[in-house]
Amino acid sequence: MKLRDIAAQLGCRLEGDGEIEIHSLAGIEQARAGQLTFFVNPRYGAELRRTSASAVILGERAEAAPCAMLRTANPYLAFARAMELLAPRPAAAPGIHMLASVAQTATVAADASIGPFVSVGLGARIGARTMIYPHGTIGDEVVAGYRERFAAEHVVVLADLLPPELLEAMRDEAFGIVDRFGSSHRTTFAITDGTPRNMTTVGQPVIKAEGPLVDAFYFAPALLALTSRIFDEQVHTCPYPGEHYVISRLTDSGDTHGWHWDDYTYGIILVLEAPDYRDGGFIQGVAGTSWDKENPDVHGALLKGVVRSYAPKAGDAYLIKTDTTMHRVYPIRGQSRRTIVNMTLASTADLSREMTHETNDTLFGGGEEPR
Ligand SMILES: [Fe+2]
């Protein structure tokens, strides 16, 4: 704390350099540079003259000291206030208080102390010996970064959204479902300009019955809270159950989920396994294009727009503005496999829009009645 600020808070008259940094208090004989001391009793005049303190609190008529001086009519009172101002705060126990909320993807040093009602955001890093006092908030710059990226490209990859244990559990569940219930498609859709769907799929009704973890993830309030912040508008679970969640898997060389748009505004895709990009299986998007179901024009969209490619890895998720971003999965090759869970999120405007669900009904078998 600067001596000038201490003087102001103590109501003292400063003589000397107000820019000096003071970090603590000490007795007149022990005080060193960076410390503030106190002089009242004339018996200590000799000590005053040779003190190594950076500053001293003393009376209006006391003799001059060899350092900066805070003069006051009541040195006792000023010193008592200085103790409050400069006393070290009691050290808090290391660890995360049970009433603190720390995002899964935040990292907190083992000896940091996170107080009650503290909120630590996504991707935040809390370093060694850090103390965060009760009710403190460490903002999530990560979410702000995602929001900016999404606004610019209408696609954003959320790296490591699934912590390793959750990824493992999701894989167990989803792989089991697709192994038992997957149906293989080799088809093209006229409604998306003849683009291919060479993939194995499982639709919502089966997942609803067999996949409690996927269902819980989709209906977690935290998912809507997070994605709404990134999309910068309130989103909702899809009003059409068939598009809540579907699983798709690419297994054979040439397998692809070809260029298409979706009916609803937003999608979040959880990547459970993905090939190295050299074997394809990465995603591509062309933002700012639109789906005319009567006259779909994939080549026109490719010529008009900018194709961006992204290679999310297992454990990542990605968000797409699916209604106006033409997108596909680049065909895989070699011995590689890609398995994802695709979840649809609706904008508020979507809720009152008529949707026809042609591609979902064909690939994923439609959905059950609303829950
Ligand atoms: Fe899609």
Radius of gyration: 32 Å
**Heterogens:** fe (ii) ion
* Unreliable runs: none
What is the percentage of strand-forming residues? 25-35%
Helix content: 25-40%
pLDDT averaged over residues: 92
CATH class descriptor of the largest domain: Mainly Beta
How many separate domains?
A: 3
CATH topology of the largest domain: Jelly Rolls
Shape descriptor: elongated
Compute the number of helices.
10
Look at the helices and sheets and give the structural class: alpha/beta
The CATH superfamily of the largest domain turns out to be q2cbj1_9rhob like domain
Q: What is the end-to-end distance?
A: 60 Å
CATH architecture of the largest domain: Sandwich
Question: What's the count of strands?
Answer: 25
Main sheet characteristics: 12 strands, antiparallel
What does this 3D model show about the protein?
The chain has 371 residues and is α/β, with parallel strands linked by helices. It has three domains: 3-86, Udp-n-acetylmuramoylalanyl-d-glutamate--2,6- Diaminopimelate Ligase, Chain: A, domain 1, CATH 3.40.1390; 95-139, no CATH class; 144-364, q2cbj1_9rhob like domain (Jelly Rolls, Sandwich). 26% of the residues lie in helices and 29% in strands. It has ten helices and 25 strands. The protein has helices at 3-10, 45-49, 75-86, 141-153, 164-181, 204-210, 212-219, 221-231, 298-304, 358-364; strands at 13-15, 24-25, 35-39, 55-59, 68-72, 95-96, 101-102, 107-108, 113-114, 119-120, 125-126, 131-132, 137-138, 155-158, 183-189, 195-202, 235-237, 245-250, 256-260, 266-273, 283-287, 307-310, 317-321, 325-329, 338-347. Strands 14, 15, 16, 17, 18, 19, 20, 21, 22, 23, 24 and 25 form a twelve-stranded antiparallel sheet that branches. Strand 15 and strand 16 form a beta hairpin. Helix 4 packs across helix 8 (221-231). The two termini are 60 Å apart. The mean pLDDT is 92. The structure holds fe (ii) ion.
